[in-house]
Amino acid sequence: MSPAPAGLIRVGPSRGSQGFLSSSIAMITPDLLTPSEVLTNLIAALFVIPIIVGFVIKAPKWVVLGFIGILFSFSDSTWGELRSQGGNIYSRGVGLFYFSLLNLILFTAGAALLIKRLANPYGPRMAPPMAKYFGAFAFLLAGHVVAGLLLGIDLDVILGQSGFINVLNMLMFMFLIISAFESDRDMTRLLFMILAIAVVRGAFGGVRYFLFDGDTANPYRNFEGLNIKIFFFDISDNFVAALAAFCAAWLLASPKVKLNIFTKVFLLGVLCLEVAAVALSFRRSSLIGLGLMFVFLFLRLPGQRKFFFALIAAALLAAVASVFFQHRLQFSTVNDGGILQSLFYDIAPSRGGIKDNRFYELYAAAQSMEGHWLFGRGTWGTFSGDRELLSYHGDDFGFVHSGFGHMILKTGFVGLALFLGMLVTYVMFYLRHRHSLAGNARLVADAGFAGFLFWIPTLLIGTPIIEFRTMLLMGLSLAMPFIAVGLQRYQAPSYQVQAHYAVA
Protein backbone atom coordinates (compact mmCIF):
# COMPACT_ATOMS: atom_id res chain seq x y z
CA MET A 1 0.00 0.00 0.00
CA SER A 2 0.99 3.59 -0.08
CA PRO A 3 -0.01 7.00 1.17
CA ALA A 4 -1.70 7.81 -2.09
CA PRO A 5 -3.16 4.59 -3.48
CA ALA A 6 -5.57 4.47 -6.34
CA GLY A 7 -7.55 1.29 -6.56
CA LEU A 8 -4.99 -0.80 -4.74
CA ILE A 9 -7.35 -2.07 -2.06
CA ARG A 10 -9.91 -4.69 -2.90
CA VAL A 11 -12.94 -2.92 -1.46
CA GLY A 12 -16.33 -1.47 -2.26
CA PRO A 13 -19.65 -2.68 -0.89
CA SER A 14 -21.02 -5.65 -2.74
CA ARG A 15 -24.62 -5.84 -1.61
CA GLY A 16 -25.61 -9.31 -2.70
CA SER A 17 -28.27 -11.60 -1.32
CA GLN A 18 -25.83 -14.21 -0.05
CA GLY A 19 -26.44 -15.48 3.43
CA PHE A 20 -24.00 -15.92 6.25
CA LEU A 21 -22.96 -19.44 5.25
CA SER A 22 -22.20 -18.63 1.63
CA SER A 23 -20.38 -15.45 2.65
CA SER A 24 -18.28 -17.41 5.15
CA ILE A 25 -17.36 -19.99 2.51
CA ALA A 26 -16.47 -17.21 0.09
CA MET A 27 -14.00 -15.85 2.61
CA ILE A 28 -12.12 -19.15 2.50
CA THR A 29 -12.34 -20.08 -1.18
CA PRO A 30 -13.28 -17.68 -3.99
CA ASP A 31 -16.24 -18.65 -6.14
CA LEU A 32 -14.19 -19.37 -9.27
CA LEU A 33 -12.02 -22.11 -7.77
CA THR A 34 -12.38 -25.55 -9.28
CA PRO A 35 -12.95 -28.58 -7.02
CA SER A 36 -9.35 -29.70 -7.57
CA GLU A 37 -8.06 -26.28 -6.49
CA VAL A 38 -10.23 -26.37 -3.39
CA LEU A 39 -8.88 -29.84 -2.56
CA THR A 40 -5.30 -28.66 -3.12
CA ASN A 41 -5.86 -25.71 -0.79
CA LEU A 42 -7.36 -27.97 1.86
CA ILE A 43 -4.46 -30.42 1.70
CA ALA A 44 -1.95 -27.57 1.87
CA ALA A 45 -3.74 -26.10 4.89
CA LEU A 46 -3.82 -29.47 6.68
CA PHE A 47 -0.08 -29.82 6.06
CA VAL A 48 1.04 -26.26 6.90
CA ILE A 49 -1.18 -25.38 9.88
CA PRO A 50 0.25 -28.05 12.26
CA ILE A 51 3.79 -26.93 11.35
CA ILE A 52 3.01 -23.29 12.17
CA VAL A 53 1.25 -24.25 15.40
CA GLY A 54 4.20 -26.42 16.41
CA PHE A 55 6.71 -23.64 15.75
CA VAL A 56 4.65 -21.07 17.66
CA ILE A 57 4.35 -23.37 20.67
CA LYS A 58 7.93 -24.70 20.69
CA ALA A 59 10.03 -22.06 18.91
CA PRO A 60 8.03 -18.82 18.48
CA LYS A 61 11.16 -16.70 18.04
CA TRP A 62 11.85 -18.25 14.62
CA VAL A 63 8.33 -17.45 13.44
CA VAL A 64 8.74 -13.86 14.63
CA LEU A 65 12.22 -13.46 13.18
CA GLY A 66 10.93 -14.81 9.88
CA PHE A 67 8.12 -12.26 9.90
CA ILE A 68 10.51 -9.43 10.79
CA GLY A 69 12.92 -10.52 8.06
CA ILE A 70 10.14 -10.35 5.47
CA LEU A 71 8.72 -7.06 6.78
CA PHE A 72 12.15 -5.41 6.79
CA SER A 73 13.25 -6.78 3.41
CA PHE A 74 10.32 -6.41 1.02
CA SER A 75 8.47 -3.25 0.01
CA ASP A 76 4.70 -3.17 -0.22
CA SER A 77 4.18 -0.02 -2.29
CA THR A 78 3.27 -0.21 -5.97
CA TRP A 79 1.73 3.27 -6.12
CA GLY A 80 3.86 5.48 -8.34
CA GLU A 81 5.06 2.70 -10.65
CA LEU A 82 4.41 3.04 -14.38
CA ARG A 83 4.34 -0.72 -14.82
CA SER A 84 2.95 -2.33 -11.72
CA GLN A 85 3.57 -6.05 -11.40
CA GLY A 86 0.13 -6.39 -9.82
CA GLY A 87 1.21 -8.07 -6.59
CA ASN A 88 3.96 -8.76 -4.09
CA ILE A 89 4.74 -11.00 -1.15
CA TYR A 90 2.12 -9.24 0.99
CA SER A 91 -0.68 -10.00 -1.46
CA ARG A 92 0.47 -13.50 -2.36
CA GLY A 93 -2.42 -15.92 -2.04
CA VAL A 94 -5.21 -13.37 -2.37
CA GLY A 95 -6.20 -15.02 -5.64
CA LEU A 96 -6.93 -18.26 -3.79
CA PHE A 97 -8.01 -16.81 -0.45
CA TYR A 98 -9.40 -13.42 0.44
CA PHE A 99 -6.53 -12.97 2.88
CA SER A 100 -2.87 -13.10 1.91
CA LEU A 101 -0.82 -16.12 2.90
CA LEU A 102 1.14 -13.99 5.37
CA ASN A 103 -2.08 -12.84 6.99
CA LEU A 104 -3.34 -16.42 7.18
CA ILE A 105 -0.05 -17.47 8.80
CA LEU A 106 -0.47 -14.64 11.31
CA PHE A 107 -4.02 -15.78 12.09
CA THR A 108 -2.77 -19.34 12.59
CA ALA A 109 0.08 -18.15 14.81
CA GLY A 110 -2.38 -16.08 16.84
CA ALA A 111 -4.63 -19.10 17.32
CA ALA A 112 -1.63 -21.22 18.35
CA LEU A 113 -0.59 -18.54 20.83
CA LEU A 114 -4.08 -18.61 22.33
CA ILE A 115 -3.93 -22.40 22.63
CA LYS A 116 -0.53 -22.12 24.31
CA ARG A 117 -1.93 -19.58 26.75
CA LEU A 118 -5.01 -21.68 27.57
CA ALA A 119 -2.79 -24.72 28.15
CA ASN A 120 -0.79 -22.75 30.72
CA PRO A 121 -3.24 -20.33 32.39
CA TYR A 122 -0.79 -19.58 35.22
CA GLY A 123 2.01 -18.65 32.87
CA PRO A 124 3.28 -15.14 32.19
CA ARG A 125 0.67 -12.61 31.12
CA MET A 126 1.52 -10.91 27.86
CA ALA A 127 1.12 -7.13 28.06
CA PRO A 128 -2.09 -7.12 30.13
CA PRO A 129 -2.52 -3.33 29.68
CA MET A 130 -3.01 -3.96 25.94
CA ALA A 131 -5.01 -7.20 26.09
CA LYS A 132 -8.26 -5.41 26.90
CA TYR A 133 -7.95 -3.37 23.71
CA PHE A 134 -7.53 -6.48 21.62
CA GLY A 135 -10.72 -7.84 23.16
CA ALA A 136 -12.51 -4.54 22.58
CA PHE A 137 -11.51 -4.33 18.91
CA ALA A 138 -12.40 -8.00 18.37
CA PHE A 139 -15.84 -7.34 19.88
CA LEU A 140 -16.22 -4.21 17.74
CA LEU A 141 -15.32 -6.12 14.58
CA ALA A 142 -17.79 -8.87 15.49
CA GLY A 143 -20.47 -6.20 15.79
CA HIS A 144 -19.58 -4.88 12.33
CA VAL A 145 -19.75 -8.41 10.92
CA VAL A 146 -23.25 -8.94 12.31
CA ALA A 147 -24.48 -5.52 11.18
CA GLY A 148 -22.89 -5.87 7.75
CA LEU A 149 -24.37 -9.30 7.08
CA LEU A 150 -27.81 -8.04 8.11
CA LEU A 151 -27.39 -5.23 5.57
CA GLY A 152 -26.40 -7.69 2.84
CA ILE A 153 -22.69 -6.82 2.75
CA ASP A 154 -20.41 -9.67 1.70
CA LEU A 155 -18.19 -11.03 4.47
CA ASP A 156 -15.02 -10.53 2.43
CA VAL A 157 -15.84 -6.81 2.18
CA ILE A 158 -16.61 -6.51 5.90
CA LEU A 159 -13.28 -8.12 6.79
CA GLY A 160 -11.34 -6.41 4.01
CA GLN A 161 -8.13 -4.45 4.41
CA SER A 162 -10.01 -1.18 3.97
CA GLY A 163 -11.68 -1.65 7.36
CA PHE A 164 -9.78 -1.88 10.62
CA ILE A 165 -8.80 -5.56 10.66
CA ASN A 166 -5.16 -4.49 10.48
CA VAL A 167 -5.50 -3.07 14.00
CA LEU A 168 -6.17 -6.63 15.16
CA ASN A 169 -3.30 -7.87 12.97
CA MET A 170 -1.04 -5.32 14.67
CA LEU A 171 -2.04 -6.44 18.16
CA MET A 172 -1.73 -10.14 17.27
CA PHE A 173 1.77 -9.54 15.95
CA MET A 174 2.64 -7.54 19.06
CA PHE A 175 1.58 -10.41 21.33
CA LEU A 176 3.45 -12.90 19.13
CA ILE A 177 6.65 -10.86 19.41
CA ILE A 178 6.32 -10.52 23.19
CA SER A 179 5.90 -14.28 23.57
CA ALA A 180 8.93 -15.04 21.41
CA PHE A 181 11.77 -13.24 23.18
CA GLU A 182 12.74 -14.80 26.48
CA SER A 183 16.34 -13.76 27.17
CA ASP A 184 18.86 -10.98 26.78
CA ARG A 185 20.41 -13.00 23.97
CA ASP A 186 17.09 -12.81 22.12
CA MET A 187 17.10 -9.02 22.44
CA THR A 188 20.65 -8.90 21.10
CA ARG A 189 19.61 -11.06 18.17
CA LEU A 190 16.67 -8.72 17.47
CA LEU A 191 18.89 -5.61 17.52
CA PHE A 192 21.48 -7.27 15.28
CA MET A 193 18.76 -8.27 12.82
CA ILE A 194 17.37 -4.73 12.71
CA LEU A 195 20.79 -3.24 11.95
CA ALA A 196 21.90 -5.97 9.53
CA ILE A 197 18.81 -5.92 7.32
CA ALA A 198 18.61 -2.13 7.41
CA VAL A 199 22.24 -1.87 6.24
CA VAL A 200 21.64 -4.32 3.39
CA ARG A 201 18.45 -2.50 2.37
CA GLY A 202 20.21 0.85 2.67
CA ALA A 203 23.11 -0.31 0.49
CA PHE A 204 20.67 -1.65 -2.09
CA GLY A 205 18.73 1.61 -2.08
CA GLY A 206 21.94 3.63 -2.29
CA VAL A 207 23.23 1.76 -5.34
CA ARG A 208 19.84 2.09 -6.99
CA TYR A 209 19.67 5.81 -6.16
CA PHE A 210 23.19 6.93 -7.08
CA LEU A 211 23.86 4.62 -10.04
CA PHE A 212 20.40 4.22 -11.51
CA ASP A 213 17.02 5.97 -11.33
CA GLY A 214 16.17 5.27 -7.71
CA ASP A 215 12.96 3.62 -6.57
CA THR A 216 10.71 2.70 -9.50
CA ALA A 217 7.69 3.57 -7.35
CA ASN A 218 8.15 7.31 -7.88
CA PRO A 219 4.90 9.28 -8.30
CA TYR A 220 6.78 12.58 -8.21
CA ARG A 221 8.57 11.74 -11.46
CA ASN A 222 6.12 9.33 -13.05
CA PHE A 223 2.90 11.25 -12.34
CA GLU A 224 3.92 14.84 -11.56
CA GLY A 225 6.72 15.12 -14.13
CA LEU A 226 9.22 16.39 -11.54
CA ASN A 227 12.92 15.68 -11.89
CA ILE A 228 13.28 13.81 -8.60
CA LYS A 229 14.90 10.50 -7.76
CA ILE A 230 13.86 8.90 -4.49
CA PHE A 231 15.60 6.41 -2.22
CA PHE A 232 12.50 4.59 -0.90
CA PHE A 233 8.89 5.57 -1.50
CA ASP A 234 7.32 3.01 0.84
CA ILE A 235 6.86 4.60 4.27
CA SER A 236 7.76 1.28 5.90
CA ASP A 237 11.17 1.26 4.20
CA ASN A 238 11.70 4.71 5.68
CA PHE A 239 10.77 3.33 9.09
CA VAL A 240 13.34 0.53 8.81
CA ALA A 241 16.03 3.09 7.95
CA ALA A 242 14.95 5.47 10.73
CA LEU A 243 14.88 2.69 13.35
CA ALA A 244 18.39 1.56 12.41
CA ALA A 245 19.61 5.17 12.48
CA PHE A 246 18.16 5.61 15.96
CA CYS A 247 19.80 2.42 17.25
CA ALA A 248 23.16 3.45 15.80
CA ALA A 249 22.90 6.96 17.28
CA TRP A 250 21.81 5.54 20.65
CA LEU A 251 24.86 3.25 20.79
CA LEU A 252 27.21 6.04 19.75
CA ALA A 253 25.82 8.59 22.20
CA SER A 254 25.20 6.42 25.26
CA PRO A 255 27.89 7.00 27.92
CA LYS A 256 27.54 3.47 29.31
CA VAL A 257 28.27 1.73 26.00
CA LYS A 258 31.96 1.04 25.39
CA LEU A 259 32.80 0.62 21.71
CA ASN A 260 36.09 0.10 19.90
CA ILE A 261 37.08 2.46 17.10
CA PHE A 262 36.02 0.08 14.33
CA THR A 263 32.54 -0.36 15.78
CA LYS A 264 32.19 3.40 16.16
CA VAL A 265 33.17 3.98 12.54
CA PHE A 266 30.75 1.29 11.40
CA LEU A 267 27.86 2.72 13.43
CA LEU A 268 28.63 6.23 12.20
CA GLY A 269 28.47 4.91 8.65
CA VAL A 270 25.15 3.20 9.42
CA LEU A 271 23.82 6.46 10.86
CA CYS A 272 24.79 8.48 7.79
CA LEU A 273 23.46 5.85 5.37
CA GLU A 274 20.08 5.49 7.05
CA VAL A 275 19.55 9.24 7.57
CA ALA A 276 20.38 9.74 3.88
CA ALA A 277 17.85 7.03 3.00
CA VAL A 278 15.09 8.93 4.80
CA ALA A 279 16.13 12.37 3.56
CA LEU A 280 16.49 11.30 -0.08
CA SER A 281 13.09 9.62 -0.01
CA PHE A 282 11.50 13.09 0.22
CA ARG A 283 8.63 11.89 2.38
CA ARG A 284 7.37 14.64 4.66
CA SER A 285 5.95 12.30 7.29
CA SER A 286 9.18 10.26 7.34
CA LEU A 287 11.42 13.25 7.87
CA ILE A 288 9.20 14.67 10.62
CA GLY A 289 9.07 11.22 12.22
CA LEU A 290 12.86 10.94 12.11
CA GLY A 291 13.10 14.38 13.68
CA LEU A 292 10.82 13.30 16.53
CA MET A 293 12.96 10.22 17.12
CA PHE A 294 16.14 12.25 17.44
CA VAL A 295 14.54 14.92 19.64
CA PHE A 296 13.51 12.06 21.92
CA LEU A 297 17.06 10.66 21.91
CA PHE A 298 18.43 14.12 22.73
CA LEU A 299 16.11 14.37 25.74
CA ARG A 300 17.14 10.90 26.95
CA LEU A 301 20.87 11.67 26.97
CA PRO A 302 22.69 12.90 30.07
CA GLY A 303 23.83 16.51 30.06
CA GLN A 304 27.47 15.89 29.14
CA ARG A 305 26.48 13.95 26.01
CA LYS A 306 23.84 16.37 24.71
CA PHE A 307 26.39 18.84 23.32
CA PHE A 308 28.21 16.11 21.35
CA PHE A 309 24.94 14.75 20.02
CA ALA A 310 23.67 18.24 19.15
CA LEU A 311 26.75 18.91 16.99
CA ILE A 312 26.31 15.69 15.00
CA ALA A 313 22.56 16.23 14.68
CA ALA A 314 23.03 19.83 13.52
CA ALA A 315 25.48 18.76 10.80
CA LEU A 316 23.15 16.00 9.59
CA LEU A 317 20.15 18.33 9.72
CA ALA A 318 21.92 20.98 7.65
CA ALA A 319 22.84 18.43 4.98
CA VAL A 320 19.36 16.94 4.96
CA ALA A 321 17.60 20.31 4.83
CA SER A 322 19.68 21.62 1.94
CA VAL A 323 18.67 18.67 -0.24
CA PHE A 324 15.17 18.01 1.04
CA PHE A 325 13.77 21.51 0.84
CA GLN A 326 15.35 22.20 -2.54
CA HIS A 327 13.52 19.22 -4.04
CA ARG A 328 10.25 19.67 -2.15
CA LEU A 329 9.95 23.28 -3.36
CA GLN A 330 9.40 21.89 -6.87
CA PHE A 331 5.89 21.08 -5.68
CA SER A 332 5.16 24.62 -4.51
CA THR A 333 3.35 27.09 -6.74
CA VAL A 334 4.54 29.98 -4.57
CA ASN A 335 7.69 31.56 -5.95
CA ASP A 336 9.00 32.82 -2.62
CA GLY A 337 8.42 29.57 -0.75
CA GLY A 338 10.66 28.69 2.16
CA ILE A 339 11.04 25.81 4.57
CA LEU A 340 7.43 25.80 5.74
CA GLN A 341 6.18 26.18 2.18
CA SER A 342 8.21 23.14 1.11
CA LEU A 343 6.77 21.06 3.95
CA PHE A 344 3.15 22.17 3.69
CA TYR A 345 2.76 23.14 0.04
CA ASP A 346 -0.44 21.09 -0.31
CA ILE A 347 -2.16 22.13 2.92
CA ALA A 348 -1.26 25.81 3.05
CA PRO A 349 -4.31 28.10 3.46
CA SER A 350 -2.94 30.47 0.82
CA ARG A 351 -3.93 28.01 -1.91
CA GLY A 352 -7.48 29.30 -1.89
CA GLY A 353 -9.76 27.39 0.46
CA ILE A 354 -10.59 23.89 1.58
CA LYS A 355 -11.11 22.56 -1.97
CA ASP A 356 -7.59 23.54 -2.99
CA ASN A 357 -5.65 21.62 -0.37
CA ARG A 358 -5.27 18.14 1.03
CA PHE A 359 -7.78 18.70 3.82
CA TYR A 360 -10.60 18.53 1.28
CA GLU A 361 -10.51 14.74 1.48
CA LEU A 362 -11.15 14.83 5.24
CA TYR A 363 -13.77 17.54 4.75
CA ALA A 364 -15.59 15.39 2.18
CA ALA A 365 -15.39 12.36 4.48
CA ALA A 366 -16.83 14.39 7.36
CA GLN A 367 -19.67 15.59 5.12
CA SER A 368 -20.43 11.95 4.28
CA MET A 369 -20.79 10.77 7.88
CA GLU A 370 -24.53 11.67 7.91
CA GLY A 371 -25.22 10.96 11.56
CA HIS A 372 -22.86 7.97 11.84
CA TRP A 373 -20.38 9.77 14.08
CA LEU A 374 -20.78 7.43 17.06
CA PHE A 375 -20.17 4.04 15.42
CA GLY A 376 -18.97 5.07 11.95
CA ARG A 377 -20.10 3.97 8.52
CA GLY A 378 -18.89 0.39 9.03
CA THR A 379 -15.79 -1.39 7.84
CA TRP A 380 -17.33 -1.37 4.37
CA GLY A 381 -18.18 2.35 4.54
CA THR A 382 -17.08 4.86 1.92
CA PHE A 383 -17.29 8.62 1.48
CA SER A 384 -18.15 10.83 -1.49
CA GLY A 385 -16.95 14.16 -2.83
CA ASP A 386 -15.74 15.98 -5.91
CA ARG A 387 -14.34 13.13 -7.99
CA GLU A 388 -12.08 15.45 -9.96
CA LEU A 389 -10.43 16.80 -6.82
CA LEU A 390 -10.23 13.26 -5.44
CA SER A 391 -9.00 11.71 -8.69
CA TYR A 392 -5.99 10.19 -6.89
CA HIS A 393 -8.46 7.83 -5.20
CA GLY A 394 -9.45 6.26 -8.49
CA ASP A 395 -12.71 4.46 -7.75
CA ASP A 396 -11.78 3.56 -4.18
CA PHE A 397 -13.29 5.88 -1.57
CA GLY A 398 -12.99 3.45 1.32
CA PHE A 399 -10.05 5.19 3.02
CA VAL A 400 -8.76 8.65 3.85
CA HIS A 401 -5.26 10.04 4.33
CA SER A 402 -5.33 10.01 8.11
CA GLY A 403 -5.17 7.01 10.38
CA PHE A 404 -7.30 8.77 12.98
CA GLY A 405 -9.71 10.01 10.31
CA HIS A 406 -9.97 6.49 8.92
CA MET A 407 -10.94 5.14 12.33
CA ILE A 408 -13.70 7.77 12.59
CA LEU A 409 -14.97 6.96 9.09
CA LYS A 410 -15.13 3.23 9.79
CA THR A 411 -15.80 2.98 13.54
CA GLY A 412 -16.86 6.47 14.65
CA PHE A 413 -15.82 8.09 17.89
CA VAL A 414 -16.17 4.74 19.69
CA GLY A 415 -13.41 3.14 17.63
CA LEU A 416 -11.28 6.28 17.72
CA ALA A 417 -11.55 6.41 21.53
CA LEU A 418 -10.42 2.78 21.75
CA PHE A 419 -7.51 3.42 19.39
CA LEU A 420 -6.37 6.54 21.25
CA GLY A 421 -6.82 4.77 24.59
CA MET A 422 -4.57 1.96 23.39
CA LEU A 423 -1.85 4.41 22.34
CA VAL A 424 -2.11 6.39 25.59
CA THR A 425 -1.85 3.15 27.60
CA TYR A 426 1.30 2.25 25.67
CA VAL A 427 2.85 5.67 26.29
CA MET A 428 2.03 5.54 30.01
CA PHE A 429 3.56 2.08 30.29
CA TYR A 430 6.80 3.23 28.71
CA LEU A 431 7.01 6.40 30.83
CA ARG A 432 6.35 4.39 33.99
CA HIS A 433 9.18 1.91 33.40
CA ARG A 434 11.80 3.75 31.34
CA HIS A 435 13.99 4.77 34.29
CA SER A 436 14.29 1.20 35.57
CA LEU A 437 15.87 -0.17 32.39
CA ALA A 438 19.54 -0.57 31.54
CA GLY A 439 21.72 -2.06 28.82
CA ASN A 440 20.07 -3.78 25.88
CA ALA A 441 16.70 -3.58 27.62
CA ARG A 442 16.90 0.20 27.65
CA LEU A 443 17.94 0.34 24.00
CA VAL A 444 15.09 -1.97 22.94
CA ALA A 445 12.51 0.02 24.91
CA ASP A 446 13.80 3.38 23.67
CA ALA A 447 13.93 2.13 20.08
CA GLY A 448 10.35 0.89 20.33
CA PHE A 449 9.09 4.20 21.71
CA ALA A 450 11.10 6.12 19.11
CA GLY A 451 9.49 3.92 16.45
CA PHE A 452 6.09 4.88 17.82
CA LEU A 453 7.05 8.57 17.53
CA PHE A 454 8.05 7.96 13.91
CA TRP A 455 4.54 6.72 13.13
CA ILE A 456 2.73 9.74 14.59
CA PRO A 457 2.93 11.89 11.41
CA THR A 458 1.78 8.90 9.35
CA LEU A 459 -1.18 8.39 11.68
CA LEU A 460 -2.05 12.04 11.16
CA ILE A 461 -1.68 12.39 7.37
CA GLY A 462 -1.03 8.89 6.00
CA THR A 463 -2.92 5.66 5.35
CA PRO A 464 -1.42 3.21 7.87
CA ILE A 465 -4.63 1.43 8.92
CA ILE A 466 -5.18 -0.12 5.48
CA GLU A 467 -1.55 -1.22 5.10
CA PHE A 468 -0.68 -4.71 6.38
CA ARG A 469 3.09 -4.18 6.45
CA THR A 470 2.85 -0.76 8.11
CA MET A 471 0.58 -1.98 10.89
CA LEU A 472 2.76 -5.00 11.67
CA LEU A 473 5.82 -2.77 11.92
CA MET A 474 3.81 -0.52 14.20
CA GLY A 475 3.08 -3.63 16.26
CA LEU A 476 6.84 -4.22 16.51
CA SER A 477 7.24 -0.68 17.88
CA LEU A 478 4.53 -1.32 20.47
CA ALA A 479 6.00 -4.68 21.49
CA MET A 480 9.59 -3.59 22.13
CA PRO A 481 9.10 -1.78 25.48
CA PHE A 482 7.04 -4.72 26.79
CA ILE A 483 9.84 -7.11 25.78
CA ALA A 484 12.44 -5.00 27.56
CA VAL A 485 10.46 -4.55 30.77
CA GLY A 486 9.38 -8.18 30.86
CA LEU A 487 12.87 -9.58 30.48
CA GLN A 488 14.49 -7.22 32.96
CA ARG A 489 11.94 -6.95 35.74
CA TYR A 490 9.15 -9.49 35.56
CA GLN A 491 10.69 -12.84 34.79
CA ALA A 492 9.66 -15.41 37.39
CA PRO A 493 10.30 -19.14 37.84
CA SER A 494 7.99 -21.21 35.70
CA TYR A 495 7.11 -23.43 38.66
CA GLN A 496 5.31 -20.63 40.51
CA VAL A 497 1.59 -21.33 40.66
CA GLN A 498 0.36 -17.79 41.27
CA ALA A 499 -0.21 -15.53 38.28
CA HIS A 500 2.58 -13.11 37.54
CA TYR A 501 3.59 -10.61 34.91
CA ALA A 502 6.30 -11.67 32.53
CA VAL A 503 5.57 -8.54 30.59
CA ALA A 504 3.92 -5.92 32.75
Q: How does this structure look, described?
A:
This protein has 504 residues and is an all-alpha fold. The protein has one domain (20-337, 393-503). It has helices spanning 20-28, 35-58, 60-73, 101-119, 128-150, 155-158, 165-180, 184-211, 219-222, 235-253, 261-279, 284-300, 303-328, 339-343, 359-367, 403-433, 439-461, 468-489, and strands at residues 125-126, 501-503. A two-stranded parallel ribbon has the order 1-2. Helix 5 (128-150) runs antiparallel to helix 7 (165-180). The radius of gyration is 23 Å and the shape is globular.
In short:
The chain is an all-alpha fold and 504 residues long.
Keywords summarizing the entry:
mainly alpha, 18 helices, O-antigen ligase-related domain-containing protein, 504 residues, disordered N terminus, disordered C terminus, 2 strands, membrane, O-antigen_ligase-rel_domated, two-stranded parallel sheet
